[in-house]
Amino acid sequence: MSLSNERSVSDERRPAARHGEIRRFGPGTRWVHRLTAVLFGTCLATAAILYLPPLSLMVGRRALVMTIHLYAGYALPVPALVGWLVTGFRRDVTELNRFTAADGAWLRDRSPVGPPRRHRDRAGTPPTEPTEPTEPTGPGQPGEQPADQPGVGGKFNAGQKLYAAAVAGSMVVFLGTGLVMWFGADLRIPDRYRTGATFIHDLFAIGIFFAVLGHFWMALRDPEARAGLRTGYVPTWWAATEHPRWAPRPERSDGPEAPEPRSEAP
Fold first, then answer.
1. Which domain range does residue 230 map to?
2. What letter would DSSP give residue 152?
3. Who's near 66: CB < 8 A, 6+ residues apart?
4. Which of 150, 32, 160, 155 is nearest to 91 (CA)?
5. pLDDT class for 152, splitting at 50, 70, 90?
6. What pLDDT digit, counting tens, does each position of 91-149 carry?
7. How big is the chain by its Cα radius of gyration, in Å?
8. Is residue 160 part of a domain?
């Protein structure tokens, strides 16, 4: 197959850009999010059955529930590890891992306590965004990024970055403490360490439960963000308003590139 034929086949398989929308998430990121959500939901549901006596009595089959909880916990990091093979997912992880000065301003403007809140109360003004959103430069393109801001880190706000870091960190804690709880007796680990692992495991489970509830609450308030995870595309106005520092890579045109006009000799 010639190079031109290969390019035409790849262009046909690539999702076409939509008018008034831009690509936010690729298939890799969306599937990692879905599978991780299913595994986390399974872990939380089985943990509630094991932890709460009324649910435990109603469901029964404690050994089966414990086995499902164990293997769902083992599988928690698998979607992210497999997704790391996809360039789009690695780029999104890089965006989540970059905290900029704008993220600090975002957190200070939304701080419910402390000096930022007292300063706002004295001034009598509501929280302000770090910068005003710029006007879209054209159909399918977000506003231009300020020249003094870095090119990476604007795709997500500080709250989303903190939530992603909390979820990733909780996975490590759940796996470590879970292994101590499950294999502690066989490995002759002292009881005090197994008791501590159980306490930390339960404490993080309660914390991540409320974090997931907050995640659901925020998602229900933002249908455009939900559409971005469902279809991969978000409206241009939403990107310019919610993430003005986000500078996505422009999509290639569907057709072949037009040849440059040749200058005629005089």
1. 25-110+151-242
2. S
3. 46, 50
4. 155
5. low
6. 999 988 888 888 888 888 877 765 555 555 555 555 544 444 444 444 444 444 443 44
7. 24
8. yes
Strand, helix or coil for residue 51:
helix
For 217-254, b/e burial (b = at least 16 CB within 10 A) is eeeeeeebbebbbeebbbbbbbbbbbbbbbbbeeeeee
120 belongs to a structural domain:
no
pLDDT for 117: 52
Residue 83's CATH number: 1.20.950.20
Is there a domain that residue 132 lies in? no
> Which residues, in sequence order, are CB contacts of 32 under 8 Å at separation 6+?
79, 80, 82, 83, 89
**Number of domains composing the chain:** 1
**Residue in the block written with tokens 């190079």:** 3
8 Å CB contact between 86 and 26: yes
pLDDT at 253 over 50: no
* Contact (Cβ atoms closer than 8 angstroms) between residue 248 and residue 142: yes
Identity at 74, one-letter amino acid code: Y
Predicted TM-score (pTM) of the model is 0.70
Classify residue 139: in a domain, yes or no. Answer: no
